[in-house]
Amino acid sequence: MSKEHDRLKRITVKDNVLQVAGRSAGQLVTMAGGTPCYIYDRKFLTKRVETLRSMMPSELKLHYAIKANPMPAVVQHMAALVDGLDVASQKELMVAIGSGIDPEAISFAGPAKRVEELKSAVAANIVINVESCLELERLYELSEELGIKPRVAFRVNPDFELKSSGMKMAGGPKQFGIDAELMPEVLAGLDTGKVDFYGFHIFSGSQNLKPEALIDAHDKTFELAERLCELAPVPVRHVNIGGGLGIPYFPGEQSLDVAVVAEHLKELMLARTGCFKNSEIVMELGRYLVGEAGYYFCQITDKKESRGQTFLMTDGGLHHHLSNSGNFGQVIRKNYPVLIANRVDSEEKEQVEIVGPLCTPLDIVGAKLDLPIAEVGDLVVVFQSGAYGATASPQGFLSHPYVRELLV
Ligand SMILES: *Cc1c(COP(=O)(O)O)cnc(C)c1O
């Protein structure tokens, strides 16, 4: 096992073969109908939510942001564990409704929502996170047209950002939400006869492994929320404080110390005053809940040398797992944890480049990895693959088969 992937010590290995959810890698791949495939571990998902809840304040509501992994079986499993689902499109809304969760526990955030999407959301009675003044106007119109009072919350573009985040989603000019400084005017003009006001959504960033950065963002989020609550025309039912909890992907990264973040959140929730005191606090998470429960498997189809470098060629790659290839927001490519699933360890190792079947040098599964000597037919596994995998990848590119997905 490569030394930098220390955290892989938690994996189960039997006769040198990776085991997931009590089955061998080979058995899982066969169950899925072959490679390439994603395997998601149901028990891991359950445990992740339970562990997180045991640390977080008991009154905190947990939502699952389904864009991280919208596979219907996964969403259905998550729906039974969390307090709500967050969707970002009408198609995701259909998956969320299909899970059987109470529509009031579904919220819809996303820039540039189409009128048809808004209509569908109003008809479904879910909470819509309004991201622009025109969107609010459209909801007023839909309120009359459909004879249903839309449930609305405002997504606010905060006047701060979550520092050292994987992706900047707030602070400064952004396409997401309504700028915090415009909110007093928006709230003053809000027509509560036409829409049902629920609260605020303040999302400041994603993929963060630094407790101090999350704590800082929570301080600022609560401070902003308190100000907004004072301005609200009716009591604020909930404030969605975003998520941002990250998972370790790259060599040297450590799991986030959630306990510290949770402790601080507990204090912030208790210290609330005024109208803010009685509103529900919601945390929405995608990656943190599902990312570590997923495995991407592909098979070695060829092995060759090129000018002193050994290449393991596989049937899977960037078209199924864009983020692993390094082309989904990374500046410098680093390896996700990768192993040969049916030869986890051996005395003898060789340095390999693992690449996929696409006609582009960007199609990298793993670069400069020291792995046991692999053969054609062996299985390559990429860990930390439960979030932003299949649906965050250009599956149509080069017209290879779509990836299989199995929840076990
Ligand atoms: C993407 C997104 C999330 C989930 O982010 P993760 O990093 O996967 O936890 C949550 N809320 C909003 C508004 C998002 O756009």
What does this protein look like?
This protein is an alpha/beta fold and 408 residues long. 27% of the residues lie in helices and 25% in strands. The protein folds into two domains: 3-40 and 292-407, Lyase, Ornithine Decarboxylase, Chain A, domain 1 (Beta Barrel), CATH 2.40.37.10; 109-285, TIM Barrel (Alpha-Beta Barrel). It contains eleven helices and 22 strands. Strands 4, 16, 17, 18, 19, 20, 21 and 22 form an eight-stranded mixed beta sheet that branches. The protein has an eight-stranded parallel barrel with strand order 5-6-7-8-9-12-14-15, surrounded by five helices. It has a three-stranded antiparallel beta sheet with strand order 1-2-3. Helix 4 links the parallel strand 6 (84-87) and strand 7. Helix 5 packs across helix 6 (133-146) and helix 8 (211-231) runs parallel beside helix 9 (258-270). The radius of gyration is 23 Å and the shape is elongated. The model has no long low-confidence stretch (mean pLDDT 95). The structure holds pyridoxal-5'-phosphate. Residues 65, 67-68, 86, 109, 203, 206-207, 242-243, 284-288, 387 line the site of pyridoxal-5'-phosphate. Belongs to the Orn/Lys/Arg decarboxylase class-II family. The modification N6-(pyridoxal phosphate)lysine is found at residue 67.
